[in-house]
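ok trying this again, last paste got cut off
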Amino acid sequence: MLNTIASQIRKWFPAPEVSAHCDGPCGVYDPASARIYAEAVFSMTKKILELDPKAGDHKTANTLSRYIAIKEEQAQKTKEDLLVLWTDYFKPVHLEKYPDLHDTFWKAAKLCSACKVEVSLEHATELLEAVEKIHNMFWATKERDVAWVKAS
């Protein structure tokens, strides 16, 4: 009975055909949030390394656990933002200009994973550098020069 009613409604009120080339309009993409997340990964990594592991008190343990949680969360957010840019924004035409585009994104995603499971200032720095490279590629595709400002 319900199938018959639904079929009749579809017949009387057909849905128009729609199409789109990506999940959102191209103007919504921006690598800025990935950069902010990567900066947080770098900052938390530095803070973890600066903690005194011999303190052995609850305050230090609590601070360490908070820093680790933030670092892992921000690394995951960095990865998610980069993957959206990679899979939704960048198109085959961009590969012509940037033949290392896929490798750059793949390595950046791997660095996000490494930063989640390790406490490595080297990898956190490499992640920032990868995000900067992606930032530059992104804005070049829009024929805009948006400066990357180094954090202090």
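PB: full thing came through this time. The domain at 29-141 is CATH 1.20.120.400 (Four Helix Bundle (Hemerythrin (Met), subunit A)).
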